[in-house]
Amino acid sequence: MSLTEIIGKIKPIDQEILDATQEHLNSLTKPLGSLGVLEDIGKQVAAIYGVFKPELTKKKVVIMAGDHGVAEEDVSCFPQEVTYQMVRNFINGGAGINVLARHAGAEIVCVDIGVKVDMHDLPDLVNKKVAYGTQNMTKGPAMTRSEAEQAIMVGVEIVKDLVEKEGITLVAPGDMGIANTTSSSAIIAALSGLSVDKVVGRGSGIDNERLKIKIKAIEKALTVNKPDKQDGLDILAKVGGLEIAGMTGVILGAAAYRIPVIIDGFNSTAAALIAATIAPLSRQYMIGSHLSAEPGHKYMLAYLELQPMLTMNLRLGEATGSALVMSMVDAAIKILREMATFEEAGVASGNS
Ligand SMILES: Cc1cc2ncn([C@H]3O[C@H](COP(=O)(O)O)[C@@H](O)[C@H]3O)c2cc1C
Ligand SMILES: O=C(O)c1cccnc1
């Protein structure tokens, strides 16, 4: 399937189910709207599935791992080897996301979409390598347009298989790629026109001196590549990353195959920005999770009109914030299925 076909497959969520679910929520034993965002999520999820009282979710975290050529500009405080070392950690079950996914009752799949080295000794790692890392975006495009498209399709195909073969009903894309906050900052700067110093942050924890280097690198990448803000694929190819492209594919795949997708922190929201630029309807399938400590994240969420449910100073990525809100999606569904109406419970309803 091509990217154009996938975009064409994305339809609006089911308005009739949305309205019927709203009516059902209004009939439950509570003041109107008093379960707030939980009601919004319940409605959205029902309308995504096109099912009045949906079943509980089968959840999957898809971690995309890729390296960044721009790492050679000294923009991160960790060496690039950490990308593949963390991949090993994901497979062995020891990373933050492994713990939080287990806590949420979700499974994990880890995909090598662009790590600089091969890891043939990890049979559980899904090998979908598009390239051995991106090029240094301060010197030219990070990827070709065709590589970016190929990496998006990796994410799409993975979600398609998970939906069709494993019956998953909820997905969260996660990231691993040293220096990827440099790319994500460039993406929001390119799209919003905000100055780089507003949207940049310390990523994995750089000091003031490196922060200046990082700002310069992003400014240079934008000047050298001149990404077209109307063209999501152009921005992605020029200043994005392979794992960001893979996450964009997971989001577009979720929208095409009609399951909700939880958007995590700075890097997965950068992927969501690209997805929404390429296919605006995909926005209807996104659920916000948390507000990252990375300062540019609030601009991304505002751009997408996504509401973060948690503010916990998380700044890890890997879909850790998404894993934390999975139980809220389950809770929203349980409200739809299990809560009594005024009539059933013999409770007098109010009048406004
Ligand atoms: C051990 C470790 C585990 C991580 N898991 C996610 N990230 C996150 O931090 C990195 C981005 O920060 P920067 O742009 O400053 O390099 C990415 O790998 C991202 O996935 C990690 C980073 C580290 C060091
Ligand atoms: O918010 C995130 O996802 C994030 C922030 C810093 C570093 N890596 C990821």
UniProtKB/TrEMBL annotation:
Keywords of the record: Cobalamin biosynthesis, Glycosyltransferase, Transferase
Record bears the keyword Ribonucleoprotein: no
InterPro entries documented for this protein: Nict_dMeBzImd_PRibTrfase, Nict_dMeBzImd_PRibTrfase_bact, Nict_dMeBzImd_PRibTrfase_N, Nict_dMeBzImd_PRibTrfase_sf
GO MF entries: nicotinate-nucleotide-dimethylbenzimidazole phosphoribosyltransferase activity
Domain of life: Bacteria
Record GO biological process: cobalamin biosynthetic process
EC number: 2.4.2.21
Annotated catalytic residues: 318
Enzyme class: transferase
Catalytic activity annotation: 5,6-dimethylbenzimidazole + nicotinate beta-D-ribonucleotide = alpha-ribazole 5'-phosphate + nicotinate + H(+)
A Pfam family it matches: DBI_PRT
Pathway(s) the chain acts in: Nucleoside biosynthesis; alpha-ribazole biosynthesis; alpha-ribazole from 5,6-dimethylbenzimidazole: step 1/2
Function as written in the Swiss-Prot or TrEMBL entry: Catalyzes the synthesis of alpha-ribazole-5'-phosphate from nicotinate mononucleotide (NAMN) and 5,6-dimethylbenzimidazole (DMB).
Family of the protein in this entry: Belongs to the CobT family.
Protein name per the record: Nicotinate-nucleotide--dimethylbenzimidazole phosphoribosyltransferase
Organism: Heliorestis acidaminivorans
